């Protein structure tokens, strides 16, 4: 009682079924802080992460509803006809298939999913004042920080609902792939929450360089295999042709899909690219719109990194909705690595989502399903294709894209870490580099633009990449024209 009395001098408490929830502070801005029991309290916000009145969104946003030109449908890999729901049934539960093909503007988030989200959402929107000062820019820089999730990234936003929908339909086991390890970690966490078995094929180059990501997944109960592996036909074929293959996301997807297709009690989960994955990630942008309003700001430029596209779409799609309705007019910029430039150098065509050609064909920007990025490339932005919805938005002129070499990205990451304190994952370093370019341009022109950035995760398990950079061993990689031509020659010729 004494402790309650002391706290009550600063906060107004209200009881509910979870215990006490602080409702109102008498002084400073408030922000949700999560405690290990799962109870929620309101606490004084750190610095400038103002979240007054911000709640976890109750609905996911589906951008398809607001596009005047609808995206092309996925095609059956055998018949080349538009896929039917029954074609996807061996891989996904019914509710996720419905979301994949839905044209509804908003889809309600289940209460059970919201309950797990409440462990870390809403996530903070933070103004990078120290970075602004370091750069000497009149621009105001904000970043939406998703690294506060249990897995340290934005990936649980989709892993949790995917695991829940599978559990609801009686699925016992989920299989997946992972590149940098962010998605595998998130799905392992989600499966532990809903008592599902989880098996992960991790790209070999990442498996070898990131042992702590593997241990993280194993701690949450997942089995982890390096990909390509001897456990699948797809993996064995790759190893026969290249015993030292560093792997790729396309190869790992083939392995996981093969296992799911052969086992009736097993389903497959994907961490990016597909419509329902980007749908789940829109909790990021929906929160951010409200947070920017609380700051009294409207973004002039929105920047995010793109690999498969989930974190970029999650932040930007709700803002594109606002742009289409005439409420704001931000420039939206995707940033990808020069080593895997699907948007800026790929072709917009139907291609397989995996290397073995087992998945549906997707209309997307692709480097060819055979494309394998150099293993020296740091981070997880290594997928041969871009999410069909992001590719479609790019074709419609709703956004732009740039590719940035990795040494510039890590130079920006060091500046960010030494000013803001957070060590970014290699993926958002691409967004940081683009933000620094924009902020320095504002310094030259005197413009006080508002720049919003997607900070999709921390880099605590990616420190070997920082070590390579700090030791001078990280080099810039550019795509090989010959390598891409060879890979693109194998893209199916579909007349659409």
TrEMBL record:
Pfam families the record matches: PALP
Residue stretches making up the Tryptophan synthase beta chain-like PALP domain: 119-457
Gene Ontology cellular component list: cytoplasm
Positions in coiled-coil regions: none
Catalytic activity: (1S,2R)-1-C-(indol-3-yl)glycerol 3-phosphate + L-serine = D-glyceraldehyde 3-phosphate + L-tryptophan + H2O
GO-annotated biological processes: L-tryptophan biosynthetic process
Keywords: Amino-acid biosynthesis, Aromatic amino acid biosynthesis, Lyase, Pyridoxal phosphate, Tryptophan biosynthesis
Keyword Amino-acid biosynthesis on entry: yes
Function: The beta subunit is responsible for the synthesis of L-tryptophan from indole and L-serine.
Xref: NCBIfam families: PRK12391.1 (NF009057), trpB_rel (TIGR01415)
Family: Belongs to the TrpB family.
Protein name per its UniProtKB record: tryptophan synthase
Organism: Spinacia oleracea (Spinach)
């Amino acid at each position: 009682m004494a402790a309650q009395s002391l706290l009550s001098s600063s906060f107004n408490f209200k009881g509910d079924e979870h215990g006490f929830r602080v409702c109102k502070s008498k002084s400073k801005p408030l922000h949700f802080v999560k405690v290990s029991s799962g109870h929620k309290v309101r606490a004084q916000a750190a610095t400038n992460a103002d979240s007054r009145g911000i709640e976890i969104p109750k609905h996911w946003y589906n951008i398809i509803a607001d596009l005047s030109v609808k995206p092309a449908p996925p095609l059956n890999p055998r018949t080349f006809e538009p896929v039917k729901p029954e074609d996807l049934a061996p891989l996904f539960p019914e509710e996720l298939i419905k979301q994949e093909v839905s044209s509804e503007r908003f889809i309600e988030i289940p209460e059970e999913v919201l309950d797990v989200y409440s462990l870390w959402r809403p996530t903070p929107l933070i103004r990078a004042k120290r970075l602004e000062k370091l750069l000497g820019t009149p621009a105001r820089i904000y970043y939406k920080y998703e690294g506060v999730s249990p897995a340290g990234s934005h990936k649980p936003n989709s892993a949790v609902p995917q695991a829940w929908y599978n559990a609801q339909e009686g699925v016992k086991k989920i299989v997946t792939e992972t590149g940098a390890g962010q998605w595998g970690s998130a799905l392992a966490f989600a499966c532990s929450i809903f008592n599902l078995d989880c098996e992960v094929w991790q790209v070999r180059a990442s498996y070898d360089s990131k042992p702590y990501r593997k241990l993280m997944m194993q701690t949450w109960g997942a089995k982890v295999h390096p990909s390509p592996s001897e456990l699948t036909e797809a993996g064995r074929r790759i190893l026969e042709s290249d015993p030292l293959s560093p792997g790729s996301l396309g190869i790992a997807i083939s392995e996981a899909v093969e296992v799911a297709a052969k086992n009736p009690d097993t389903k497959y989960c994907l961490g990016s690219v597909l419509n329902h994955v980007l749908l789940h990630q829109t909790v990021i942008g929906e929160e951010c719109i409200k947070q920017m309003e609380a700051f009294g700001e409207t973004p002039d430029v929105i920047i995010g990194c793109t690999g498969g596209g989930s974190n970029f779409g999650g932040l930007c799609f709700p803002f594109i909705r606002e742009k289409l309705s005439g409420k704001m007019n931000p420039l939206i910029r995707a940033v990808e690595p020069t080593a895997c430039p699907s948007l800026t150098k790929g072709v917009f065509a139907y291609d397989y989502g995996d290397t073995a050609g087992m998945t549906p064909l997707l209309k997307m920007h692709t480097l060819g399903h055979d494309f394998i990025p150099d293993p020296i490339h740091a981070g997880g932005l290594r997928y041969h294709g871009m999410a069909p919805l992001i590719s479609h938005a790019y074709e419609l002129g709703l956004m732009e894209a740039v590719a940035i070499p990795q040494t510039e990205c890590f130079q920006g990451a060091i500046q960010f870490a030494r000013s803001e304190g957070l060590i970014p994952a290699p993926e958002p370093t691409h967004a940081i580099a683009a933000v620094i370019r924009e902020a320095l341009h504002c310094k030259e022109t005197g413009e006080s633009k508002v720049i919003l950035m997607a900070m999709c995760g921390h880099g605590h398990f990616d420190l070997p990449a920082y070590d390579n950079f700090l030791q001078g061993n990280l080099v810039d990689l550019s795509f090989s024209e010959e390598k891409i031509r060879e890979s693109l020659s194998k893209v199916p010729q579909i007349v659409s």
